[in-house]
Design goal:
heterodimer; A: about 250 residues; alpha+beta; nine-stranded mixed beta sheet; 6 helices; 9 strands; elongated; B: about 625 residues; alpha/beta; six-stranded mixed beta sheet; globular
Chain lengths: ~250, ~625
């Protein structure tokens, strides 16, 4: 039994987005060793620090919201942990927040229900920037809804249950259109399912499958993805969506 | 003056990496990189830009200790920088060629043809075609005489260069022997050359007015490098052949040394590796902290090239190794350490080293691996010490099955040594044991092959009587069989290589006789061994064979899936070179050997005496 658990949030950017789940795990384990963190080790032939990560994402996708639980053999303050471990991590992979948690905290993988990806969309060619107008945007939005989301009514700010159709891999979608002097750009926020809910008849959101389809639709409108990023993961609770750190903060307050 | 460096941007890399397998091979951002930044190079235009290349994948190359040593040496100088490059996998090579993007270094993604110095690690012969492929991918001519510009100057080092001829057509120079001091001297020579030939001490400052001037400047630089210990400049040497194809003698084009004495790093004992290694981002073949404890080998097994060319034996101070190990583990966060040398149990103070490292605080989860442990001096104590961390398999190399043959090859080991050591290991709980044998050894008879079988059976019987319950269920004896290759600078360098047919027959005897339940048999493709032999005993004509093979598509020859025997056989034919001349032929004792141009520190007469001693036994 560990003395304590620290849950932390980290990003992986630029070059390091090309590392696999396993490579990241190794990189973190070595950083813990260099920082002198007293971890709990797995038993068996090759003892490894007992850590668990949030759901893996495809190679080549940046993430601002990776989460990790580490079991400690000797408890320590989560903020101190952040400080000393960050000294051992490369600049493209840093911890952004951390919290001490109860050893009985349910695992990340079992709790995380949604994953949020931000797709930044713009015109294919610079000279075509004017093509994104409020008109073309709404026509794209309509087409997107019909083809992909199967009739989800999108909108900013939502609660669980706001949407009538919860089948398929997508929970909900937000469109944010910004107009600039030369045209405009679209921020597409996709809330995908990270696990199967018994009462929802949903499926798991698969990034590569989705972005492939999205590219096809975008091409018809002269649009392309300029960046895609995993920006948050959520646990679905009665009052809405919280991230894996917030849920622990709420519990502490209770 | 600002130096303009041609490099690939991160955005361009991102586009290239789309759909590429294991993209982690092509990015840097590792912990422990030491190359100077692009800004530093731009502001210090005199910086000597070097790129160290291991001509295999990132995973293989990053496991090479030599690469890390040279990388640290060069980067310790403020006036030089070293970056790394590896062989791109076939999918990425295709991407580069399709998009007409030249090969670039890992750290700053500088295109290889923009470096001052490119150095290949020719660790073994099966990397030769990859070297040509990488030159071509860099947009450089593969033949040195077609590369007219002074820079980049292209070189190779590593153990296969002890016979420098096969690569001689492609290299501006080669480094034979220990690299750490030689590379520093070479960097110094290039720096002096630049300062002497350009007012600003800047590469762009050297502006030859015509091809002739450029060629003569290049000659000047090569000549100054050729004066350094261990350096062979192919352009200044030529082999003459007799009508029957043997070496008639050597010609010298400039006042260069008549034999190239290998470079020997004498301060090995004092060399403390203060810098920690580059820690790879993705899993490599040997993903652990490698600590070299000793260079050279005090044994003189007659088949073993490494045992002769890395002499003299130099070992590091135990106390310093202990602190280097502990510091290294702390700095890297590795959970495995490997003490490397050619014969680790001959290291004086090995017990004390292991005891001190294993008992260091906080290292109870560290696993230790010791390649090349000899079982004759393998003590109970050592087994226990290694075991106190985590257990990996144990490897023993009896090489031959019978005592008679072991005596002939001078493998100083008796069967009781072997059986006793394995018995100790089993009592201590090891259930995975690996044995190395060679077949096709000189003076080998069919009886010797049956002796291998007997030895295997004896060890299996020992396991059945020693191990019980779950242990015997898990017990696995891995037996690895390799074809003997007569290598330059060994007493057996004159011996013919056994034919593929005979090797297959001998292997068949072993394969059909082993107790299959406990033994897993591996064996190296004898066709590959044949090519390795032909390349290692090659001469200047072998260059054409390598070029032909590469043009026909040979690359990654060390990878089973890629090695194509027919390609090689046809390349020998096309180049008009008889393969059996280098493999099946018994070289004459009076013959001038191609590698006689190299002085490896051991007299030819010594090898001959050893050869005759083996014959006489």
């Amino acid at each position: 039994m560990p003395e304590g658990i620290i849950r932390f949030k980290f990003f992986k950017k630029n070059e390091l987005k090309y590392l696999s789940h396993l490579d990241i795990l190794t990189m973190l384990s070595r950083a813990f060793a260099r920082a002198g963190i007293k971890c709990v080790y797995s038993c068996g032939f090759n003892p490894k620090p007992r850590v668990s990560l949030s759901n893996p994402i495809p190679l080549g996708v940046e993430s601002l919201a990776e989460y990790c639980d580490i079991e400690l053999a000797e408890n320590m303050d989560a903020k101190e942990f952040l400080k000393i471990v960050n000294k051992q991590l490369p600049e493209n992979l840093k911890i952004t927040d951390s919290i001490n948690a109860d050893p009985k905290t349910p695992s990340l993988m079992s709790e995380i229900g949604l994953v949020l990806y931000d797709f930044q969309v713009t015109s294919i060619a610079c000279q075509d920037m004017k093509k994104i107008t409020p008109e073309s945007y709404s026509s794209f939005e309509k087409s997107f809804e019909e083809t992909l989301a199967g009739g989800i009514k999108p909108g900013p700010g939502f609660k669980e249950g706001d949407f009538s159709i919860n089948t398929g891999p997508i929970h909900s979608v937000e469109f944010i259109f910004s107009k600039t002097s030369t045209g405009g750009s679209i921020l597409l926020k996709i809330y995908g399912y990270a696990k199967i809910f018994k009462n929802k008849n949903n499926s798991i959101f698969k990034f590569n499958e989705f972005s492939g389809k999205l590219k096809e639709i975008l091409r018809e409108y002269g649009l392309k993805i300029i960046s895609a990023q995993k920006t948050e993961v959520f646990i679905i609770i009665d009052s809405g969506l919280v991230n894996p750190l917030e849920i622990l903060k709420f519990k502490k307050r209770d | 003056m600002i130096r303009r460096i041609k490099s690939l941007s991160f955005n361009e890399l991102e586009e290239l990496l789309e759909g590429i397998e294991k993209p982690g091979r092509y990015i840097d951002s590792e912990i422990g990189t030491k190359s100077k930044s692009l800004d530093y190079i731009k502001n210090n235009p005199g910086t000597i830009l070097s790129c160290l290349i291991f001509p295999d994948t990132y995973e293989v190359g990053m496991s090479n200790l030599g690469l890390q040593i040279l990388y640290n040496v060069i980067n310790s100088y403020p006036f030089a920088t070293a970056e790394r490059a590896f062989a791109p996998w076939t999918d990425f090579e295709k991407k580069l060629r399709d998009n007409m993007v030249k090969l670039f270094s890992l750290e700053n993604r500088i295109f290889l043809d923009d470096f001052d110095l490119i150095g290949f690690n020719a660790a073994h012969e099966m990397l030769y075609t990859n070297i040509l492929n990488l030159l071509d991918l860099s947009g450089l001519e593969i033949s040195s005489n077609k590369r007219h510009s002074i820079f980049p100057i292209v070189c190779a080092g590593g153990s296969s260069t002890f016979n420098p001829w096969p690569l001689s057509k492609f290299m501006d120079f080669m480094v034979i022997g220990d690299g750490e001091e030689t590379i520093a001297a070479i960097i110094g020579a290039i720096r002096d050359f630049k300062i002497a030939n350009s007012p600003g001490g800047d590469k762009t400052g050297i502006s030859p007015v015509c091809c002739e001037e450029e060629a003569s400047l290049k000659q000047k630089l090569l000549f100054s490098i050729s004066q350094l210990e261990g350096v062979f400049v192919p352009e200044f040497y030529k082999i003459n052949y007799t009508p029957c194809g043997n070496v008639a003698g050597f010609d010298f084009k400039s006042p260069v040394k008549k034999t190239v004495r290998k470079a020997t790093f004498r301060d090995f004992d004092d060399a403390v590796r203060e810098d920690s290694p580059v820690i790879p981002n993705i899993q490599t073949v040997h993903d652990r902290l490698n600590i070299e404890i000793m260079r050279g080998c005090s044994r003189s097994c007659r088949f073993c090239q490494a045992g002769f060319i890395y002499r003299p034996v130099r070992q590091k101070n135990v106390e310093r190794l202990v602190s280097e190990s502990i510091e290294g583990l702390k700095k890297t966060g590795y959970d495995e350490i490997s003490f490397t040398s050619l014969s680790s149990s001959d290291f004086k103070g090995i017990e004390s080293l292991l005891k001190k490292v294993t008992s260091a605080e906080g290292f109870d989860k560290i696993s230790i691996s010791m390649p090349s442990l000899r079982m004759d001096s393998f003590t109970l104590d050592l087994a226990h010490l290694i075991q106190s961390g985590r257990k990996t398999g144990l490897t023993f190399a009896p090489e031959a099955g019978s005592q008679g043959l072991r005596d002939k090859i001078k493998k100083d080991l008796t069967e009781s040594d072997l059986v006793d050591s394995i018995s100790i290991a089993m009592h201590k709980g090891w259930d995975k044991i690996k044995l190395y044998f060679m077949i096709g050894l000189p003076f080998e008879t069919e009886e010797d092959i049956y002796s291998i079988l007997e030895l295997i059976r004896k060890i299996v019987a020992l396991a059945r009587s020693t191990l019980t319950g779950r242990s015997i269920g898990r017990f696995m004896l891995n037996v690895s069989i390799n074809a003997f290759i007569p290598k330059p600078f060994t007493p057996f360098q004159w011996c013919p290589q056994e034919s593929i047919k005979n090797l297959e027959y001998k292997f068949g005897i072993i394969a059909s006789g082993i107790p299959k339940r406990f033994v897993k048999l591996h064996w190296t493709n004898p066709q590959k061994s044949l090519i390795e032999c032909a390349l290692s005993r090659g001469d200047s004509r072998t260059s054409d064979v390598i070029e032909e093979a590469w043009r026909t598509g040979a690359k990654f020859d060390n990878w089973t899936d890629f090695f194509n025997f027919n390609t090689w056989v046809e390349s020998f034919l096309k180049a008009g070179v008889d393969i059996s001349f280098y493999t099946e032929r018994r070289y004459g004792e009076e013959e001038i050997l191609p590698w006689d141009i190299v002085d490896a520190g051991i007299k030819k007469s010594y090898f001959l005496r050893e050869y005759k001693a083996a014959k006489g036994l």
